Amino acid sequence: MRGIRMGATKGGGGGGGERVEKLKSSRTKLWMIRATTSVLLWTCIVQLTALGDTWGPHLLKGWPSCFSHQDSSVSVVEDKVPSVPARVLPPKRVYKNNGYLMVSCNGGLNQMRAAICDMVTIARYLNVTLIVPELDKTSFWSDPSEFQDIFDVDHFIMSLRDEVRILKELPPRLKRRVEMGMVYSMPPISWSDISYYHNQILPLIKKYKVVHLNKTDTRLANNGQPLDIQKLRCRVNFSALRFTSQIEELGKRVVKLLRQNGPFIVLHLRYEMDMLAFSGCTQGCNSEEVEELTRMRYAYPWWKEKIINSDLKRKDGFCPLTPEETALILRALDIDNSYQIYIAAGEIYGGQKRMATLAAAYPKLVRKETLLEPSDLGFFQNHSSQMAALDYLVSLESDIFIPTYDGNMAKVVEGHRRFLGFKQTILLERRLLVDLIDQYNSGTLSWYEFSDAVKESHESRKGQPTQRLVIPDRPKEEDYFYANPEECLQPSYSRLDLSVGGL
């Protein structure tokens, strides 16, 4: 029995030795396979790198690398392949970074657009790193859009790399500090020149490393700034701030659809509920509508003006024209009723009933919702800034742009159209117009007297080259930089005649 057990033990030991040997052999083979694979991979990488150095320049130029210039059978193909220019990036600006600037924009699309231009310029002249601006999500429109949902963020960063360093977010250590609430936050003083930021804001950035400016509209003065500062504001506005490809392509589609049917005019009709409630303008509204607008005004505590005399405000020219008043003015200006009128606005207060007079005078009223399928706009629904971006693009391309109120979109589009060659923009003098309208409606003026007065008073209000108005110590009353960025415009003083509607 012992012998059998011992034999069995010895036999078992012999089998274990064979398994160990097989295991060692398998491990050796596995190691050799891994080693061989590694050598092959490294060889491939080296070869690809070498080939990349040879092929890369050719691929950037659009030339297939396998084609030989000596091969006559391929030379014809080479001639037909179009050259694709390589993207030329500006060189990075090298400077000592004084810290980081975070900004939170406030307001609608164009209010934020101008603010972004100012903040880039301020960051550049303080030698700080700018974090991609945060857009307003708490205003009346409650638009959840991020910067990259509206603007091409990579283009924004790369196109300005020779002026300022822009990051999508703070470095991790500083980001954690901000998330813990350890950040210095403040609103800068309105209409300040660049010396204010050097003297007041820069020391704070150096002290805290990160400063958050929580209100950014109209924080840089219109006038009295160095020429380089003014030109950088324009570069950001007209070059770096490009809408996303989705918005750009849809905007081109709308313009193409309009162009197929001849000339078109963009009417920025600001007769919207929020504007009427904010301004307190109730011309043409019934008592129920007046009460509804008043309730809305009181619902927003940051709308400071509560008790408003609508009639007085209208006579002073501080109310948007009503659709009925707008129809009269377009007719008085001899705008041909066969032209398309594109309504660049949100929902008109009072709906189709309120638009009836304008639609009767100009039957070719269109808007993006009537030109496009619902599926085309589905992505943009509940994103007011993205919808406004579409209207912005169409407004730039129109034969004539007519805003009925001088809000931020009206001003920024006016300035952009000036930059594009002083494209015709009719800037309505509302204070004069409502007086003329009242005289015409009361029978004091005949139609011809009314029309002549309207045309004569607007001969010099068509977006021609003009000097920006400067009012020392009253920046709110002087001309807005983004409406007339004359430092960036071509010095052409020839009158543009688009031959539309006799204007």
TrEMBL record:
Pfam families: O-FucT (PF10250)
Record-level GO BP terms: fucose metabolic process
Pathway the protein contributes to: Glycan metabolism
Compartment(s): Membrane
Sequence intervals crossing the membrane: 31-51
Topology with respect to the bilayer: Single-pass type II membrane protein
GO MF entries: glycosyltransferase activity
Annotated segments matching region Disordered: 1-20
Domain of life (superkingdom): Eukaryota
Entry keyword set: Carbohydrate metabolism, Fucose metabolism, Glycoprotein, Glycosyltransferase, Membrane, Signal-anchor, Transferase, Transmembrane, Transmembrane helix
GO cellular component: cytoplasm; membrane
Family stated for the protein in its record: Belongs to the glycosyltransferase GT106 family.
Protein name stated in the entry: O-fucosyltransferase family protein
Species of the source: Gossypium australe
